[in-house]
Amino acid sequence: MTQATTQNVIAFQGEPGAYSHQACRHYRPQMEALPCRTFEDTIEAVRSGRAELAMLPVENSTYGRVADIHHLLPESGLHIIDEGFVRVQISLLAVPGTKLAQVTDAMSHPVLLGQCRGFLRRHSIHGVVGADTAGSAHEVARRGEPSLAALASPLAGEIYGLEELASGIEDRQNNTTRFLIMSRSPDFSRRANSQGGTTMVTSFVFRVRNIPAALYKALGGFATNGVNMTKLESYMVDGIFTATQFYADIEGHPEDPPVARALEELDYFTSSLNILGVYPADPLRATQTQAAE
After folding, report:
1. 93 with 150: CB under 8 angstroms?
2. Which reaction does this chain catalyze (predicted)?
């Protein structure tokens, strides 16, 4: 693949029809979506030049953060340039001509099976564990058995020629996944989101110095400067209990005086500080905040 081609390619983890693929279509519809086997492969596709951008899921409103992704982001060498929130709408997909009453088994990733317990129970459908959502749709299309359906995105049904027997069957109607769009080059410019909103988000990781109350002191600058911290998560580094790294999202741009003062104070109490990206807040971020209140 030539460099001219990769300038319009966005990589994602999973098979065609995965929810990450859906995110690519929604947020970068003009780009060609490149499926990758793992998150590491997705990141490497951008680092090597096979793709211009990467679409990576970082957290889900029902199941929390995506495993391992926070370990990968700081070491990836990539930069966050945008975010997106995708509503997880689950469909029951089967081979064309199938009636709902014929379905006895539904295949999907364990997470999606857990999100549709009510529907499956009402229709006496047994859940079957598959490798992933889009892969399950692919397998159902390959087998061609009316008794076997898949739980996946409507996009997966479109790609693999399956019929949608039921839609929106998830137990929680507000289930949403947050994605980060990452690039080889950072973009610290102030820019509006798709609806003209000008709120910026800054994401960074840091490790505190080994002194008493270091985390408390490090975060004090955000409170005293009135900077809203929307996310703070900790995780071990290299499997060592005493080596803790923190991931944080704040509202604002590093050049905003309150943010600059808060980051300066944070830097004093940390042994490392790495800004992962500065990007416009997605319009759906406010909707998610309101739903949580």
Report:
1. yes
2. prephenate + H(+) = 3-phenylpyruvate + CO2 + H2O
- pLDDT tens digits, one per residue of 52-104: 999 999 998 877 788 778 788 988 999 999 999 999 999 999 999 999 999 99
Residue type, 202: T
Determine whether 45 is exposed, middle or buried from the number of CB atoms within 10 Å of its CB (0-12, 13-18, 19+). buried
Answer yes or no: 39 catalytic.
no
Q: Which of 12, 179, 206, 222 is catalytic?
A: 179
pLDDT digits (tens, 9 = 90+) for 183-213: 999 999 999 998 999 999 999 999 988 778 8
Token pair 């997705």 is at which residue? 42
Distance of CA 6 to the CA centre of its chain: 22
DSSP secondary structure string for all residues of 169-219: --S-TT-EEEEEEEESS--------TTS---EEEEEEEEE-SSTTHHHHHH
**Confidence class of residue 27 from pLDDT cuts 50, 70 and 90?**
very high
Task: Report the C-alpha gap between 199 and 250 in whole angstroms.
Answer: 11
Q: Is 64 left (phi over 0), alpha (psi -120 to 50) or beta?
A: left
Helix, coil or strand: residue 130: coil
Please tell me which residue in 98, 177, 202, 270 is annotated as part of the active site.
Answer: 177
Is residue 169 very low, low, confident or very high in pLDDT (cuts 50, 70, 90)?
very high
Compute the distance between CA of residue 102 and CA of residue 124 in angstroms, rounded to an integer: 11
Question: Cα(143)–Cα(134) distance, rounded to whole angstroms?
Answer: 14
Give 66's Cβ-side CA count (13 Å radius): 18
- Is 177 marked active-site? yes
Question: Kind and range of the H or E element at 126?
Answer: strand 126-129
